[in-house]
Amino acid sequence: MELPQAFMAQMQPLLGEEETQQLAEALQTQAPVSIRMNRQKAASMDALETTPVPWCATGLYLKERPSFTFDPLFHAGCYYVQEASSMFLEQVMQQYVQEPVLMLDLCAAPGGKSTHALSLLKEGSLLIANEVVPQRAWVLAENLSKWGSADVVVTNNDPSAFTSQENLFDVVLTDVPCSGEGMFRKDETAINEWSPENVALCWQRQRRILSDIWPSLKPGGLLIYSTCTFNRQEDEDNVAWIADELGAEVLPVEVSATWGITGNLTEKAFPVYRFLPHKTKGEGFFMAVLRKNVADYRSFTPQAAKKKEKQKPMVLPKDLVKQAGSWVTALKSYELQNEGEAIFAFPSAYIPLLSSLRTSLRILKAGVKVAEVKGRNLIPAHELVLSHIYNKEAFPSVELTEEQAIAYLRREALTLTEAPRGYVVVTNRHAPLGLVKNLGSRANNLYPAEWRIRKALT
Q1: Residue-level pLDDT at 6
Q2: What string of DSSP letters covers 395-429?
Q3: Residues ≥6 apart with Cβ < 8 Å to 445
Q4: CB of 134 closer than 8 Å to CB of 156
Q5: Comparing C-alpha atoms, which of 193, 231, 177 is closest to residue 14?
Q6: pLDDT digits (tens, 9 = 90+) for 295-313
């Protein structure tokens, strides 16, 4: 790999010539592989050789990269493949988010930090996970469905759509689009697309995004700012701009000296957290935490959101709604709603907020889809059995072999002669993978077509 000379010249004032060379050498080595376990889904990685990620209780480094595509536990949401550096979010959340909050993950796809946040938020919280690119937004929705939380809304909007939601969020996470210098050793495209001009475009775009989202953060609320890049313009300089222009205090995060995290590399004194591959076991990453000033913050006059005409919800048969409710646990905390013929469970406390958000945002997913009504029949939803609120007594389950599980995830036909007829949950290593409708001679595979494994097994 040949790094751009302009990149090397950019780093020397920050690191010095010797350490810049050490960084360049580290970028020539293989990136570490790491995963983060889903504690709400019992699964073991004992078959793999692992070591812990020190700043994340559920993070594991793997000695080598397995074929995640052909591991049923990956598709079941038992773990998420994520860069270890990005798991530093855990330290911020543990130290600063001590009570239920309304949180926005603004640039959330493909879902690493969203799934992590959902595992860390206190009971009674709600996460809005947003992605502006439609295709990536659907990937985000898929990954959050597999993770299993019902306390989430997935939206597909430009950051400017949130400007009118004034003083709404307690916490906003902005893992902003950046020049991607921290991805150089993983993605050769990042090297080919890098230029000083692109860096300039990125830091300007980041400030536009921050300006758009700032009104939606409550005074006293937390902004978590992160990039996967090394340059000061997108990192320290943007943090200084947020503090000075928008009005915020930069907050410290307690870290262990043994983690090898680097602090501020500029003349500024505020705390930031840099992950440099020649010092820390992970990819390039930057994070800072800011608290929005309670008074003395920039004044905005956002445009009012255009109101959509309310459509009366379809009235579904009460017996079917009751039946769907029997498939869900914790109905005291969740309420069944319907969008057309789809029934979904959503946190009761946030129903009014959801109704309000629907008037101004494009929502792809809210809570957990429980079922679809087809005439007088109720069809259980795939994401229901992957969720934490699924009533495991609702349907019988059948354990699949590894070979059968892969066939199921390819959406191939199965024969389950031992299983009862009707809807059956199929599992592998006791982790639910989804549903089939067993007809006796064969079982209709109900795995979502858009999620199926397409890759050939070599």
Answers
A1: 96
A2: S-EEEPPHHHHHHHHTT--B--TTSPSEEEEEEET
A3: 408, 411, 412, 413, 414, 436
A4: yes
A5: 231
A6: 644 443 434 444 444 556 6
Among 121, 39, 47, smallest CA distance to 80 is for 39
Q: Which is nearest to 392 in space by CA: 407, 380, 374?
A: 380
How much is the average pLDDT of 203-220?
98
- What's the pLDDT tens digit per position in 244-254? 999 999 999 99
CA distance 74 to 409: 11
**CATH 3.10.450.720 domain extents, the chain:** 395-458
Residue 365 amino acid letter: K
Residue-wise pLDDT tens digits, 104-114: 999 999 999 99
Task: Pull the structure tokens for residue 314.
Answer: 């379809």
DSSP 73-113: HHHTTSEEE--TGGGGHHHHHHHH--S--EEEETT-TT-HH
Structure tokens at 439: 């007809």
> Which amino acid appears at position 32 of this protein?
P
CATH class of 395-458: alpha beta
Q: How many residues does the chain have?
A: 458
Query: How far is residue 172's CA from residue 163's CA, in Å, rounded to a whole number?
Result: 13
In the chain, which segments carry CATH 3.40.50.150? 5-292
At 73, phi and psi to the nearest 5? Answer: -65, -30
Rg over CA atoms, the chain: 23
Q: Using a cut of 0.90, tell me whether the model's pTM lies above it.
A: yes
209 three-class SS: helix
Residue range 5-292 in CATH 3.40.50.150: yes
